[in-house]
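Me: I'm a chemist; would you kindly supply a protein sequence with its structure tokens?

Assistant:
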Amino acid sequence: MSDATQPGQCPVMHGGQTATDPSNTSGGPKALNLDILHQHDRKTDPMGADFDYRQEVRKLDVEALKNDLRQLINGSQAWWPSDWGSYVGMFARVAWHAAGSYRLADGRGGGGTGNQRFAPLNAWPDNVNTDKGRRLFFFFWADLIILSGTIAYEQAGLETFGFAFGREDIWHPEKDTYWGAEQEWLAPSDERYGDVDQPDSMENPLAAVQMGLIYVNPEGVNGQPDPLKTAAHIRETFARMAMNDEETAALTAGGHTIGKCHGNGDAEDLSPDPESAGPEYQGVGWMNTQGRSIGRDTMASGIEGAWTTDPTRWDMGWFEMLFGYEWELKKSPAGAWQWMPVDIREEDMPADVEDPSIKCLPIMTDADMAMKMDPAYHAICQQFMADPGYFSETFARAWFKLTHRDMGPKARYIGPDVPDEELIWQDPVPEGPTQYDIGRLKAQIADSDLSTAELVSTAWDSARTYRGSDMRGGANGARIRLAPQKDWQGNEPKRLARVLAVLEPLAQKAGASLADTIVLAGNVGLERAAEAAGQPIEVPFAPGRGDASDAMTDAESFDPLEPLADGFRNWCKTDEIVNPEEMLLDRAQLLGLTAPEMTVLIGGMRALGTNHGGTQHGVFTAREGQLTHDFFVNLTDMDNSWHPTGKGLYEVRDRQSGQVKWTATRTDLVFGSHSVLRAYAEVYAQDDNQAKFVDDFVAAWTKVMNADRFDLA
């Protein structure tokens, strides 16, 4: 696994997106783009605000749906005929490419939202003709895409591991997600690597080797065949998708056991992709304008041929073909590099997709050859060949992981085919106690010697790891006390250890989980601070969090959750090449916050004195520790002037005397300089909005604390 702290582009697009947009809405080339905080506004959802997909899917006749899919898979439509009378390869590929965009670094991508049907993914060259697969069915997209691929494998003969419903569709493109800085499809890999010969130098959080690909280039690195070099890139790319070598080899072999590549034509004759084609194409792209464009004349990757003798059946054919023959480099009819067998027996050749009497040469991609030539992958393949049952089981589990990795914990799974086994990559958390005296525990926390800042900071650090992208992290499980989180620089290990040493015995004595106690302690700190500010409140609290153990925690997979920056606590781990306000926006989006919620949390956290390391940047108040709106009052006060002092720091001076009153960071001052954020700040700065500020802060705080409480939904 590569170093997750490696500097790179921010995972969401900000000023770079507006830099080429001269319209009045761009806000200038350096403006912070807030669109990602409301990119899935419910106004775009045609189902209406009252529609609850997760409730509705529970009413579904699952077996009837699966039977419909089986009939569809085993048939053929005239407008897009199936290969060999079966859509198993097509539907498996559509599901694979939906799930395959997932990346571990920030949890974005994957098949959990149905985003494949929108730009830019629907136009990725690697997704060519997935539009046809989606057009063969339409229903609830995200779940159906993944289910269709799973049923396809079952129809081929694989005993699958299971399937879960529960993916809710989005209704708007995720154009603010950062997929790379390239300005053209399939630009050379060099653009996203420090050194293309060192795969772990790929820019984070990216996983695919080129713009528009799901994984690696099937012809080789930058289109140049070299199986050993390709193997190194495969290993890095799949690691960034949370897959180890065995899972990678199983997915490669199993993915190529069914279906074929399509490259029997000239790519220059293809119509534009679905996003660019004219209205006469009705959202269907990549059609051959000079030929039939279907059946044996289909164009996709440019590579032409099947991998196995019987591409609609789950068997060991891929291994038998790859290891049973020698292979040489040839060009496809479309001019793509592919590996062809030497002196193959006719009985091993697959049939033409339209005429079973015609025999065709099989192919291997550079990625397939990597499995044969890389020593580690070769050894795994030999193990699979010696035990076909083990291969099938390994692939079934890896397929389940691939297609469910971004769904979060098992508690979110719906349906009759959910496996009983709970897997470590699902980040299991035991059910927590609820029958304990919450009031008494709060009183004991309040009587401790822990400060308001310590209580609030610890609760925040525990909860801020949550990522709505793949529903990982959060306060539930109290993994902040386990490796690797207990040692993260952003969690201030010494302060954290001191606070936990106080809270752990209180939790044990009360019969509460430590996870609950940490959150409750943060609430105690807020209530104390609000009362000191003259706004007594009771912060909502829902018990029931559990405490995960080391055995329940895949520590390595939690490394990418380590914050490199936390604008809410005014901290950056290193001098990143990305502005800290952009990192703040990324964190806010993963937490599911709106722009107003992000704003009110910043102001409150500054007033509470929760800055990392106790710095005073942005603490625009003489009442530190009280939950006041002073941050906004003083930020918007035009009697002040602001002066850069270097390294992203500023002095706030009295405009008349020149006296330095406070210091600040870019993250602080963006709430006064950005027109939209300033509008929010001005609301909270009003003299009569102290109560609103406290209420809004508590609501946003509670949202973060409960972000991973799927049992409350």
